[in-house]
Amino acid sequence: MADSSRAIGWLLRAAPVPGLTLAEWNGRPDGSAELAVGIVWDVVRAELELGLEALDRLRLAGGAGPALCAVAERLVSVLVPVGTAGSWAPPIRGVSAAGRGHPLRVPFPRVSHGPYHWLIPPDGSGFLTDPVHLHTALCRAEHVFAAL
């Protein structure tokens, strides 16, 4: 990542107590901290295989914002604009959206492996995945897996 301090600052905007978040990133063996959803971004969570396929499609189109993986939960979480959770429809099997009031365990910006890691790390610019493009990519990915 070009400027991790920008990414850290951007992520800390979603921290209830930034100092505790920094301590959590430094003190937890998995290098993660719990941030609040619905302040800077909402999140769309997808089952691992579905999420990875959708992210590949978004990357090829040049429209993938920050996304992370929770290995034990087998989930991909994609950061999307605030308000997405309230309008996320129609439902896709294995996909959920969360907004204000939900926590998200997030790795330190440079973490690219481990229990919680970035598939596409934030760069601090605030760029988020377009929810319409994400929904389309997830629907296409769902069709790929349904055909198998």
Q: What topology emerges from the helices and strands here?
A:
Elements: H1 4-12, H2 18-27, E1 32-36, E2 42-47, H3 48-61, E3 67-70, E4 75-80, H4 84-87, E5 95-98, E6 103-107, E7 116-120, H5 131-147
Antiparallel strand pairs: 1-6, 2-4, 2-5, 3-4, 3-7
Features of the shown structure:
two-stranded antiparallel sheet; 24% strand; five-stranded antiparallel β-sheet; 5 helices; 148 residues
Q: Would you give an account of this structure?
A:
There is one protein chain. The protein has one domain (4-147). It is built from five helices and seven strands; from the N terminus they run ααββαββαβββα. The protein has helices spanning 4-12, 18-27, 48-61, 84-87, 131-147; strands at residues 32-36, 42-47, 67-70, 75-80, 95-98, 103-107, 116-120. The strands form two sheets. Strands 5-2-4-3-7 form a five-stranded antiparallel sheet. It has a two-stranded antiparallel ribbon with strand order 1-6. Strand 3 and strand 4 form a beta hairpin. Helix 3 (48-61) crosses helix 5. The longest helix has 17 residues, at 131-147. It starts with a helix and ends with a helix.
